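User: Can you fold this complex?
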Amino acid sequence: MIVSLIVAADRNNGIGIANRIPWRLAADLKRFRELTLGHHLIIGRRTFDSIGRPLPGRRMIVLTRRKDAHFDECQTAGSLSEALLIAREAGETEAFIGGGADIYRLALPLADRLYLTRVDSTNPADTFFPFWDSSEWVEAAQSVHPADERNEFEMTFHLYERRPHPEHEG
Ligand SMILES: NC(=O)c1ccc[n+]([C@@H]2O[C@H](COP(=O)([O-])OP(=O)(O)OC[C@H]3O[C@@H](n4cnc5c(N)ncnc54)[C@H](OP(=O)(O)O)[C@@H]3O)[C@@H](O)[C@H]2O)c1
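Assistant: Here's the predicted assembly.
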């Protein structure tokens, strides 16, 4: 099973403010939907609160330490490994990690792919994508979407794949 992080971050790596997304980018929402449809989507409890509802067509798993937590039409997990096990046992081929910062931090060491939307702006933010060592990753695809009436800022869609470990290279 491929483990993929999916995130939109600005030039300062800002991803959120006051438990919401700092921008309005219809093209990024569309890309997020297209990539995650039909897959497991693993998110933190604060991100679930921010979205406020289960996303249709996704099998959502909410990470929380609260044993009694219940979220409509979602599964819950008490750890990332439990969440990944749920997805794997369901036959998932690509599980998506949809944030926020706490969950990205947990998942980065395990991730195979990083779908990063780089938002070409700086925004007030209180939540940031964690440091990732770009030397461990190879860019597999890139495309630019301009700002327009439905997209506040220009953005670049990147796909990074984890560089094979030298010992594993043929
Ligand atoms: N730009 C983007 O692409 C993007 C994507 C997602 C989110 N965001 C933004 O990010 C912000 C939210 O991120 P955040 O970092 O504050 O919160 P978060 O990562 O969404 O959720 C944190 C919560 O996850 C649970 N959790 C954390 N570590 C855990 C562990 N090891 N085991 C089990 N549960 C664990 C805890 O829930 P309990 O407190 O219930 O125990 C914790 O309070 C918002 O502003 C949101 O809009 C941005």
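The chain has one domain: 2-168. DSSP finds four helices and ten strands in the chain.
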